[in-house]
Amino acid sequence: MKNYLKLIFLGILIILIAGGFFFNLLKGKNTILIDQTGKVISTRIKVPFQFERVWAKSNSFAEFLRNLPLKNQDAEVHLFDGSIKLNKNAYISVVDLKIGDKDLHQCADAVIRLRADYLISIGEENRIRFHFTNGFLAEYQKWKEGYRIQVNSDNHVKWVKTAKPSSSYSTYWKFLEMVFSYAGTKSLSSELIPVDLENMKIGDVLIQGGLPGHAVIVVDLAINPRTGQKAFLLAQSYMPAQEIQILLNSQDYKISPWYLLEPNEGISTPEWSFDANSLKRFKD
After folding, report:
1. Residue-level pLDDT at 212
2. Which helix (H) or strand (E) covers residue 268, if one does?
3. In terms of Cα–Cα distance, which of 140, 145, 220 is closest to 183?
């Protein structure tokens, strides 16, 4: 009798474990491709069967993105005010970068921030410059020299010298928050150059400028050398301002969080759908 009860208990346990596994698959959370011990994207998220990560040049934007630090696998996405993102079925991992305590670090802002962080990391701060929606060019080099951006009530923008020169992280973050306040998907989309989906690279951006609009960034790329099929990973922030997250693929749970590249098809993410002409790239 005892052995019979043990078998029943074991059967129930197996059903519960299997049920939880398949429930996660239905949500796109394919834990088979997750190594919880990995601390960065390239070590946390394994490639699908028969795929290999594409080569990335040392000190490139691709290498920088592929090695973004990740929080523990059970971490949840926090909003700027410390609350938890309601849609927990949009992401698989959380990037371990602070976002400030203002409702500013949204979708396009996260892309801008990652590009600027990369340029800082390779010592090319003089290349950090972004346009506001009204066309004004915000240059970090001038900000470091002590100039600040004054925005009048009539939306007229100009530089004024009001601070001492500084290259501290606090100075850098205040510059970014100014850019976050007056730039967005519309201005960022205008700065980027169109790219055919079939030529996708790490660092490219899926973007639809407008009110509203959205932007996500390609943070890794793999290829099946036998078939030439490409797969990619996407990261985003969203509204309200929130931590950067690695998106899962709710359309194809078998390879999630990877997306298979289909050159003539749109890309549906958990919180936005992009058409086939939405891919763009930074000019330099």
Report:
1. 83
2. strand 267-269
3. 140
Distances from the Cα of 30 to the Cαs of 23, 46, 218, 250, 269, in angstroms? 10, 11, 19, 10, 15
Q: How many domains does the chain have?
A: 1
Contact 87, 250 (CB under 8 A): no
Predicted model pTM: 0.89
Residue among 94, 113, 93, 92 at smallest CA distance from 104: 113
- Residue 145 domain-assigned (yes or no): yes
Distance CA 10, CA 8 (A): 5
Query: What is the DSSP pairing of strand 214-223 with strand 230-236?
Result: antiparallel
Q: Which domain does 116 fall in, by range? A: 41-281
Kindly report the number of other CB atoms within 10 A of residue 109's CB atom: 25
CA angle 168, 180, 58 (to 5 degrees): 60
Joined tokens for residue 125: 């701060």
- 277 inside domain: yes
Per-residue pLDDT at 153: 79
Q: Does residue 92 contact residue 248 with C-beta atoms inside 8 Å?
A: yes
Q: What distance in Å separates the CA atoms of residue 239 and residue 35, rounded to the nearest whole number?
A: 29
Q: What is the mean pLDDT of residues 185-203?
A: 97
**68-118 tens-digit pLDDT:** 999 999 999 999 999 999 999 999 999 999 999 999 999 999 999 999 999
Domain-located, residue 114 = yes
Chain centroid to Cα 139, Å, comes to 23
